[in-house]
Design brief:
Strand content: under 5%
Largest sheet: none
Distance between the termini: 160 Å
Structural class: mainly alpha
Helix content: 55-70%
Radius of gyration: 52 Å
Number of strands: 0
Shape: rod-shaped
Order of helices and strands: HHHH
Number of helices: 4
């Protein structure tokens, strides 16, 4: 047994350590764990930042697509409203064209029809009448 406070001689006992000029310094308790923990925190932080950037890119692309689709929807709604307005105007025109008053007006002006008992007459243009006789 060794007495307390005495150290064994290094000759021949640990040849690999004796051949070194300076013996290795033992690590401080828990120092390796702290370094590994900070390294792991750094890796997790970098992974979260990359995930956040990729999600931001995806959401930004979706926002742009949504804005484009909303603008397209607004344009289509305006076209639909214009088509509905035109359709309503055409329906009113059809109703007007199918009335007896309009049909009579067209028959008198374009076809020369007269009612029974009326005497038809035709007004001549004085310029056409004088040049046609000469």
């Amino acid at each position: 047994m060794r007495a307390q406070g005495t150290y064994p001689s290094l000759r021949g006992q640990w040849p690999e350590e004796v051949s070194r000029s300076v013996p290795p310094r033992p690590p401080k308790p828990g120092q390796g764990q702290v370094v590994r923990r900070y390294w792991l925190y750094g890796v997790c932080l970098a992974a979260m930042a990359m995930a956040g950037l990729s999600l931001h890119g995806m959401f930004r692309a979706q926002e742009e697509r949504l804005a484009r689709l909303q603008a397209e929807e607004a344009a289509l709604q305006a076209q639909l409203e214009a088509a509905r307005s035109r359709n309503q105007a055409l329906r009113r025109e059809i109703e007007r064209l199918q009335t007896d008053e309009y049909i009579e007006t067209v028959a008198r002006s374009q076809l020369g029809y007269v009612r029974p008992g009326e005497i038809p007459f035709m007004a001549l243009d004085p310029k056409q009448g004088s040049s046609g006789n000469n």
